[in-house]
Amino acid sequence: MSNFDELLRNNARFAATGAKDRVPAIPFLPNKQVYILTCIDPRVDPAQLFGLELGDAIVARTVGGRVTPAVLQDLAWICYLHEQKTPDADWFEFAVMHHTDCGSGFFADDDLRHGFAARGFDDAELAALAVLDPAVTVPDDVEKVLAAPAVTAGLRVSGFAYDVKTGLVTTVVPPRSR
Ligand SMILES: [Zn+2]
After folding, report:
1. Is residue 116 scored above 80 in pLDDT?
2. Which of 1, 64, 85, 118 is deepest in the core (most CB within 10 A)?
3. Angle at which helices 134-147 and 69-85 pack, to 10 degrees?
């Protein structure tokens, strides 16, 4: 018995549909030409919020939707692939989306954070991950992406905030490139 048993039964039904065939081929560009970074919070699933179907978007998720070195490496890799494999195709857009009531806010709790840092993590780096106000952290993370040398200079990057109470996504940083 596993918590995944039901999911695997759902998957068998999915595999029997034609959905898997209506996707782009490798080297692929997502159907909607978007790449979204957001929080791992299960209330913040981009497929649900934006009405995305299979193959529509590249989605990266971290605690808080924060831009980390791993996020930048993945984005740089996709940029590089785009340049090498599909140089004549239109570019996708990248967006950072943070949300209200984010669990990453617990990183701002000194006692709680110190206890976790003692497990082998850098206290200051952890403190910087807290999303207390998306209007503040989204512009910071958009800047990190725009400043990353390995990310293609012309890539358009924007920033959004999702309100878990209203279900609405608002623009914090309109799309721009380096
Ligand atoms: Zn969150």
Report:
1. yes
2. 64
3. 50
Contact 44, 164 (CB under 8 A): yes
Give the strand pairing for 93-99 and 169-176. Answer: unpaired
Tokens of 130: 């807290």
- Report how far ligand 1's centroid is from the alpha carbon of 126 (Å): 14
Amino acid at 20: K
Q: How far is the CA of 117 from the centre of ligand 1 (A)?
A: 19
Q: Residue 127 CA to chain centroid, in angstroms?
A: 20
Cβ contacts of 16 within 8 Å, gap of 6 or more: none
DSSP type of residue 28:
P
pTM of the model: 0.95
Q: What's the 44 CA to ligand 1 centre distance in angstroms?
A: 8
Mean pLDDT of 15-31: 85
Q: How many CB atoms lie within 10 A of CB 156?
A: 16
